[in-house]
Amino acid sequence: MSGTTHLTGVVERAANGPVLRTDGGGSWELDNTRQVRRFIGSRVEVVGERSGFNGFACNQIWPAGQPRPTAFKLRLEFLLAAAFVAYGLYATVGGVVSALG
Description:
Elements: E1 4-14, E2 17-22, E3 27-30, H1 34-37, E4 43-51, E5 55-63, H2 76-100
């Protein structure tokens, strides 16, 4: 199943990793990341995608009742494009310098 989902609940420690207990009584297994683990025992809001029957891949997590933080994600495609452009400029400048010298 795809699509972004917004959930609110309490993050608890379980045998298989962190679990989000939602207000409606649902239970979602969360990614076992440092970002999620630091909220164990806290009431949070989570945005992400369902994964399997009761799995939830978190894109963002923050304390409930607070404004959603702005997400900063460095996209790999942009990073690679910038690296190719930088290398092209470096090669061009190097070629001009060696031709003048």
